[in-house]
């Protein structure tokens, strides 16, 4: 897997390996906490630096943020740190029951032609996440 990911171009790496790598990277991003929170005054360079990798802590998931606002911020973060994706759509899935878990659907293009659909769940207590590819079987 290492040689496929780092030694071959994205066109040469098997599509399944690329998709699995993207899922792992998104999960790592969601489970990491950014060292700093950058806003307009930080500039593009600082928000895209390794210090900005991860979420801005639990404040992102406060009750004051709507699911759509959280989805927008997740999209920005993922587009910054996952360059293999294009045309990313992040949709918040509202739950009927009270829970500490937030559900999202991600849809993006990989290598500009292959659609990747993911089901993502974030546990706001443990700050853990689940990222699973949606194959559309159901």
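Q: What amino acid sequence fits the structure above?
A:
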């Amino acid at each position: 897997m290492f040689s496929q990911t780092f030694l071959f171009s994205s066109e040469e790496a098997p599509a399944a390996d690329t998709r699995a790598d993207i899922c792992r990277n998104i999960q790592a991003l969601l489970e990491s906490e950014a060292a700093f929170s950058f806003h307009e005054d930080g500039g593009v360079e600082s928000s895209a630096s390794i210090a900005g990798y991860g979420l801005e802590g639990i404040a992102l998931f406060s009750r004051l943020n709507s699911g759509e606002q959280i989805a927008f911020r997740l999209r920005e973060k993922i587009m910054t740190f996952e360059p293999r994706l294009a045309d990313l759509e992040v949709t918040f899935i509202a739950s009927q029951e009270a829970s500490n878990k937030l559900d999202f659907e991600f849809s993006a293009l990989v290598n500009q032609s292959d659609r990747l659909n993911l089901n993502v769940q974030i546990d706001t207590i443990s700050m853990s996440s689940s990222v699973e590819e949606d194959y559309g079987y159901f």
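Q: And what stands out in the fold?
A: The radius of gyration is 15 Å.
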